[in-house]
Each structure stands twice: as C-alpha cells, then as structure tokens.
Amino acid sequence: MKYKQILLRLSGAFFLLGIITSASGQTPIWTKFEKQFQSAKTYENPVYNLQRFHVRFESPSGRVKIINGFWDGDKTWKVRFSPDETGSWVYQSFCSDTLNTGLHHIEGTFECSEPNSTLAIYSKGHIVHPKGSYYLSHADGTPFFYTACTAWNGTLKSTAEEWSMYLDDRVKNHYNVIQFAATQWRGGDKNSEGQVAFEGSGRIKINPSYFKHLDKKIDEINKRGLVAAPVLLWALPVSTGRELSPGYYLPDQEAALLANYMVARYGANHVIWILGGDGKYTDENEQRWKNIGRSVFGGEHPGVVSLHSQGKSWIGKEYANEEWLDIIGYQTGHDNGANTANWITKGPVATDWMKLPPKVFINMEPCYEDISPAIKDKQVRNASYWSLFSTPVAGIAYGANGIWPWIRPGEEILNHRKPAFLRPWFESIKLPGSIQIGLLSDFIEKYNWWNLKPAPELNLSQVTRPEEFVSIVRSDGHRLVMAYVPVKTVLRLANSGGIKYSGSWFDPSNGESRIANVLYKKGTIEITSPSETDFILILQKN
Question: 144, 192, 264, 392: which has the fewest Cβ within 10 Å?
C-alpha cells in the first residue's frame, strides 16, 4: 500500500475535537485574543530596533497584565493574549519608539465570554504550578498529569494531513502534551518549506514566515485539547550537528532574544515551555542558563517552564532556588542496563527530591522504543514506571525512534547514526509501548495521584538485582499505596498500623485489572505478584 493511501486510510478513522470559535465575536475565556498593529515606520531589524513593544491589559476586576507583542513581518506587529476573566477588558499599547503612531498608545476593549468548549484546557484553564506543590494543575486547581509524546521534528516536517492524523491518535491514546523543537536544531535543519526560524549568530534576523508555519501546528495541538511543549533553544553541546542548535551556539543575549520572541508569539496558546533541550546546564554552562532563564522568565510570564537535560544529567541542586523554573526535567538515556536502572531508582533524582524546594520532577525522555533491538515496550514500561515512582507523581514522556525525527519510508535521521531498523512515524505510533503509556495515563488518572510520594521504607523485601527493583509510592496516612513490580515477586510491606486494604493488580501491558490476595501478618502485608511479567499493585484502605 502506498504511503499516501496509508495516510488517508488512517486519518479517516479519526475526528477533530473541540474547534474553538465564537459566533458572537467575543473571545471565550482561556482562548486567544489577537490584535494586529501596523507600524508607521519601517525598521531594518525590528527585534533590535524596537527595544519594547507591549500591551497593558486591564481585567473587569481591575487586575493588570503586561503582554509583550511581536513582529510578524513587514510593518505588521501583533499581540496575543489569553484572558482569564469574563467581562470587558481594556487595553493600551506602549512602544519604546513613542513617535510611532501605529504602535504607541493604541487603545481598545474586547469582551471575554464563558468557555464554549468542554475540553479541559478551555474549561479549566491554563497549566500552572501551584505554589509549594510537586505537580501541575489547571488554573482552576484541577490536577494535570503530564503525559507527553515526543515529536521533536513533527512541527517541522509534517504535512497538515500527517499532523492531524498524529494528533488525533495521541488524543485517542490519552496523551495530553506534545513535545517538539520550535526552531531548526541538530535533528531538523529546516521546516518542510525550506525555512529556518532565524539566521545569524552574533546578531540574528527573525523569519516571521517560519513562525507562521509553526503557528498552524501549535494551534492544531491546542484545538484537540492538548498542551504544546516547545523546546525554545535546543542545546546539545556535543556530537554532529550541534552547530545547528541555537541553545548551543547563540550568545546569551541572542538566545534570550529568540526565546522572548517565541514566548510573546505563543504565550496565548496552552503551553509548557522547555527552555533548553538536551543541554548541559551545570558546571561551566550553569550561569549562562540561569542568565537566560531569568531574562526570559524572571518576571510574570505565561506558561510553566522546564529544562530538558542531557542523559543522566541532574540539575536539581543547582537550580533548586531558580524561581522561574517549575519543572526539573531529566532524561535517563536509551539503554536498559543495570547502570540506567540504578540511576533511575537509586540515583540523584530518587535521593534528592525531598531535600529541595517543591518543584515538578519529570523524566522527559526515557528510553525511546525501537531505538535498538533491545528496547521494546517492556523496557519503556520499566523506565517509565520507575521514573514515575522515584519522585512525587507528576507525569512522564514517551518517545519512539521513528516518531521524534518524523521518519517517512526511505528516510534516515539527520546527524544521528543509522539504527539497526527504522520504522516510519505512522507505524511507530502503533507500537505497544506507545499505546501502553496512554494506558498508564488512563490508569493513574483514576486515583488521587497528586498525593502519592515515594515510600521505599515500606518495602521489607527489596531485591538487589537492578532490573527487579520494586518502586513504591503512598499517600499521606497510607490510604493509597502503589508498587511497581517488574518481575514475579513475593512482596513484604510494612504495615505497622494494621491497615486493612482492598488489593488489585494492574497489568500495564494491556490495561486489565485483577484482584490481589493480601495476606496479613503482624505488622506486615505479604502479596505475591500474579505472573513473571511486570504489574502494578494497588492497595486502597477499606
């Protein structure tokens, strides 16, 4: 069957969710209000020539928000804003060139109406990090379990038809975040129209046409109720192609300028910013990234912020007091050896989180399914559940070696070694692990997961083999206990309070559940897992 026929057949099985429109011309709450301005002057390089262009928005209750505008080509400037309060909003523009009558001191109003969609991002609001918590939530306080699929090149390479098919499949399989590269980078040197986001290094030139292409891809993400997670500055400092990645070679000022441009352009979308991708953010690079983070996100800003680190790189201690950073992201590499298992379950992530100010801890890149013959769905489950239960439960990401580079039949990955085999992206979204991470999300959402924190002290029968490590989390008061059991095991758990539980097993490979036989002894519980493969034990207080 030809590639286009496959696309048509697969995309026909899906449907579009929740298109946000407003017949009355009003802007529904949590959606995008856009205002266009026409400059009275032409600037040689607008992002340098105009030091400041922003719009002051005042809510019906009198709250004030300052939103940066952005250049959109020629003499066109725009501001995008997502209102968080219904009623009449008043706005006024400010420009550092006060003689520019097209940009300075333009006033207006708009009406914000009640939501017109039942999708969570439009009915419950933007994603935030509640102060003092270890998880993300919607603006109304509803906890948000981060379940991301990694499509670094998806926004660059995909056709509109491909992108729709992919996003519809991710919705169907319970994902709610899409991770992607927002500019050219090591793995994607241009978009499908041959465009790059910017040119230059010491002094850059923004390309609005590139970002107009990206606008459509991000809007399609949000249209389905998914959250966009763009990597603003890919930053891998080693290996072939690093010279393509802005986070690696741009000076601090230019890196911050580029990131600020994208924050202004996409801040009205539903976003989780990944400031840097695959970077080294400690040692000689630590102050650079702190400077960039403070410059871009030091004040009030839309969206929560994360960093995506190199494999087995931990930035928790160094960035613990950076208030702009909400998510301590990490990745655990692409092998399934003992060192990797130990790093996830016994390494700095598992031992440091409780010593740090509350932040969100997420493995943003466990092993990619299919990256080698040894990495299949079982290895993806191992890395994902171990990671999920190594810190307070917050979320997980998934990757497949054919999805992130957006591989089509006959293509290879730019600036990467040739793997033993390489499936196209539309086959990779059907891989077992791809579906099983969706099952993970659906499973965990049935419980008050945001109350779960690691409880290794409960395990009285911990094994020494890394691949058999049992990870345990519990809620306060031990009302809910979960354990990830990678192989057939006889579990002995501390139960000094003599709590009586209802027990069940969840099969992460197929989503099925079964009753668990709980044997009570003095001060302990004994339970035998049901088979040789991995299971999750759930104990709920009667």
Answer: 192
Structure tokens at 207: 């390309």
pLDDT more than 70, % of the chain: 95
At 429, the amino acid letter reads I
Q: Which of 67, 95, 116 is the last residue of a domain?
A: 116
Strands (E), 264-394: 272-279, 304-309, 327-331, 360-365
- Whether 285 shows a pLDDT value over 50: the answer reads yes
17, pLDDT greater than 80 = no
Question: Which of 181, 81, 128, 169 lies closest to 404, judged by CA?
Answer: 181
Residues 408 and 484 in one domain: no
**Which residues, at least 6 apart from 481, have a Cβ–Cβ distance to it below 8 Å?**
455, 458, 472, 473, 474, 475, 493, 501, 537, 538, 539
Indicate if 285 and 416 belong to the same structural domain. yes
Contacts of 46 (CB under 8 A, 6+ apart): 71, 77, 206
Instruction: Indicate if 129 and 88 belong to the same structural domain.
Output: no
If asked whether residues 473 and 411 sit together in one domain, one would say no
Residue 169 resides in a domain:
yes
Helix locations, 175-251, DSSP H: 208-223, 246-249
Q: Are strands 76-81 and 70-71 parallel, antiparallel or unpaired?
A: antiparallel
d(CA 331, CA 326): 16
pLDDT band at 374, cuts 50/70/90? very high
DSSP 459: B
Considering only CA atoms, which of 111, 141, 112 is closest in space to residue 126?
141
Residues 6+ apart with CB under 8 A from 193: 209, 213
211 and 62 assigned to the same domain: no
Whether residues 111 and 145 share a domain: the answer is no
The mean pLDDT of 152-171, rounded to a whole number, is 98
* Overall domain count for the chain: 3
Statement to judge: residues 131 and 95 lie in one domain: no
Q: Any idea which of 13-27, 250-264, 341-355 has the lowest mean pLDDT?
A: 13-27
List the domain range (segments joined by +) for residue 505.
455-541
